[in-house]
Design a protein that fits this description.
The structure is a homotetramer of 139-residue chains.
Chain A: H1 6-16, E1 24-28, E2 31-36, E3 43-44, E4 48-49, H2 51-70, E5 77-85, E6 94-103, E7 107-116, E8 124-131
Antiparallel strand pairs in A: 1-2, 2-6, 3-4, 5-8, 6-7, 7-8
């Protein structure tokens, strides 16, 4: 199965997760870049973007990377995620850069660096593992 | 500072996170139980409750546990979270049981078992670390 | 394949890892208890037992738990391990209690609580994932 | 306190951990490279280098990186470590490349890529967090 480009991944995600969209800006087989728009409603006490917002972004970036690498596998599921919150995000878009550490037949592992748009230092770093279903189960 | 009971924690969370609520059902200094209501809008492809929903629940359960142990520290922030997704959740409420592994002066570590309501086997397990700000910074 | 008892697991480990031994004291299909003897040569600056000693113990406890659950699978390999160091261990034996969180066909996940012998509070907590090879690959 | 170079770090480690040595080959304030020599006695069933060997290497590389960044802090201790084993290592030296993700006053977070010497693909990836003691406690 051929990998997908950013437009195709965003198209899929827009249908699968109405209202959230994909936000994929670059998509290569070993690296994707995703953006989520700054939304003041996601702020928590202290003015910080919520942890779950960043966890969801890391999770989605790795999902997109698997699509970029091997094509549409909607039933790929997260098996584990480890995130370290490093710095308070700025009131700005968040940019996630995800690279593939291992793409096996049944497991894929990637790491994700999350930065506020325009910043050099990361505000979070995650390692995400997905289970890839046997091809016969994919539509 | 004295620990808070479930009602007091839910009251705080309802104000701090309008629309999400607290869901704390039991609160002791070393263990809390939180519930989130089943909401079909959170389903992802395959009919599974989303990973971010469970990550947010684990994060919130540990936040509540810190309040239960030492009182209101709104500026406590997650420093790391590791979650393993173990089984597909049922179409039911999720129940998180969080216990304190370490409560230090500046760091608290807990683990969280997440089950579908009525099930014995967990659908996810998380370890969550919070940084606790010096008391003078808390309101 | 039938699960193994503590003696059988220790016998296997003594042959597979000469010089280290097994240290399995209890073995049930969903829980094992392992001990490592206190050895002053493992101390690091500050008089603390080394982190790698505890990581190795957590890893071995989960390996033993898989044997206790499904029998001898020497080629089971660790795919991930997350450990939180909680308290400075005492100058005493370390006791690891490992319980099964999920035993799937290809992945097993367990968590491990490590305590100094005689202490109630844990000095470390780990989550360990193993990949279980297809049975035809096992001797 | 000034950061240390590779020779100074190896000198410290050779005294602190007799018999294991430092193995630091490059040391900058935001990146170190460490090597451990291939030693057939560390093999486990299946001919693989043991997990604890790689966990110990990741832990040591982050310890060295803190020394490279801020100088000698022997009482810095690991607070958490997450490692993903990605590929079976070759029968060769292991090379760990550790970069700083965050250097705070009390916590430092880094990630470590471990490769077999001469290989491009990593055999393990780790995220390591250290607690840095207040300076008055350091010698």
């Amino acid at each position: 199965m051929a990998g997908m480009n950013a437009d195709a991944i965003n198209d899929f995600m827009g249908k699968a997760f109405p209202g959230s969209g994909g936000g994929v800006e670059q998509a290569d087989p070993d690296r994707v870049v995703c953006r989520i728009r700054y939304d003041p409603s996601q702020l928590r006490p202290g003015g910080t973007l919520s942890g779950p917002t960043m966890m969801g972004l890391a999770d989605r970036a790795m999902y997109a990377l698997i699509f970029a690498a091997i094509g549409e596998v909607p039933l790929a599921v997260t098996t584990s995620l480890t995130i370290n919150f490093l710095r308070k995000p700025k009131p700005a878009d968040l940019i996630a850069e995800c690279r593939m550490l291992k793409l096996g037949k049944t497991l894929a592992v990637g790491d994700v660096m999350i930065r506020s748009d325009g910043e050099r230092q990361p505000c979070a770093h995650a390692v995400v593992t997905y289970s890839i279903p046997p091809k016969t189960l994919s539509p």
